[in-house]
């Protein structure tokens, strides 16, 4: 026991009157381990019971991130106190320095504040489908400064949080899991309008990725310059890969048009010479 006491009392670093002993390092490691264990227990409890708390996975993730940042701030404060640095005096003494750093890292702090806003108000959650700067992104992670997403080309996109909070962002999955989409097509003048609408609706029904049969609707939109313009509207939960779904439905429409001898015209112009 005496030997253990001597080991713990051994000075690792000595700078003037300032000493860091083995037991100081042991306490720091203990604080670190206890913090990790507490966070693991909290994460396990939240993800195990989030359904009972009426929270979805994205809300549970946001709640856990906020708790994690708060606990780590407390842990770091304890570590600083353990090595003899008084946090209150440190903050007061470095106020002027923090102002200078804040001016130099204004955008970084803006991103951090935006991250706190995203995690607290939960307007954007994990697995949400966003349209940002014309790119469709599925959010995979919301960090304190940046968020990570995956676009339709399976490329990871790192997004500064301030870009999400200050710009116009379309959240395709904010209210409902399923979203309405449309496919536009034009046919030659003289085509049977009712038959075209029937084919459009039947083409959607042949594809597995649609929701609610009653919400499939074919419409005669307009008399175009070279065609009769139609659209078919349908709901789908496959928001992220919807372009593939639309492509498949267009193939079905094209096949059915050929079978029924319905022509998709190309633009034509009559030129008259005197």
Helical stretch tally: 9
CA-atom Rg in angstroms: 30 Å
Describe the global form.
Answer: elongated
Give helix and strand order, one letter per element, not per position. HEEHHHHHEEEEHEEHEEH
- Order of strands side by side in the largest beta sheet? 6-5-4-3-7
Low-confidence stretches: none
Feature tags:
single chain, 274 residues, alpha+beta, SH3 type barrels, 3 domains, 5-stranded antiparallel beta sheet, 3-stranded antiparallel beta sheet, 9 helices, 10 strands, transmembrane
Overview in brief:
Belongs to the MscS (TC 1.A.23) family. The chain is α+β, with helices and mostly antiparallel strands.
Please tell me about this protein's structure.
- This protein has 274 residues and is an alpha+beta fold.
- The protein has three domains: 92 residues, no CATH class; 47 residues, SH3 type barrels (Roll); 81 residues, Alpha-Beta Plaits (2-Layer Sandwich).
- It contains nine helices and ten strands.
- A five-stranded antiparallel β-sheet has the order 6-5-4-3-7. A three-stranded antiparallel β-sheet has the order 8-10-9, with helices on one face. Strands 1-2 form a two-stranded antiparallel sheet.
- Strand 1 and strand 2 form a beta hairpin.
- Helix 2 runs antiparallel to helix 3 and helix 8 packs across helix 9.
- The chain is elongated, with a radius of gyration of 30 Å.
- The N and C termini lie far apart (115 Å).
- The mean pLDDT is 79.
- It is a multi-pass membrane protein.
